[in-house]
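Let us work through a complete example step by step.
Step 1: write down the sequence.
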Amino acid sequence: MRIIFGSEKKRIIKQLQEQFGISKIPHLFLRFGKEKIRAYSGNLSIEELKELDKTLRIETAGLYFAKQQQDGIRLTLDGVQLFKPQITKNILELTGEQTQQWLKGNDLDIQTSKAFKILKNQNEFLGCGKSTGERITNFVPKERRIKN
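Step 2: predict the structure and record it as tokens.
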């Protein structure tokens, strides 16, 4: 576990702003591994978190909301739900049939600009996918998919 401070946190928020329009994140950022970013809003102080991690090797704390990748930040399903009131960019509206396919874990053949996209049907945010320009890659975890 590593606590993300200062300029690194500002860089992440700037990237979230550019990609999705998210600008206000009052939580403490924690990094687990090289890519996973978690938002922590509990009552433990930074010193207490560090001490716990040192003595117990904390595997997880906070909500896993994003994965930082070479080509941008991908929000998790929980991250999309956490920040949905702020998401204003890279939203892709799906039809009912596309929504069913997405919730089953299938990639979608949709031509759009290359970027991470927030998928939406009517007023429901469904997750985040990566557009290659020709298709949207599905990242819905297997345990959260609709069974065929």
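Step 3: interpret the result. The first helix runs from residue 6 to 20.
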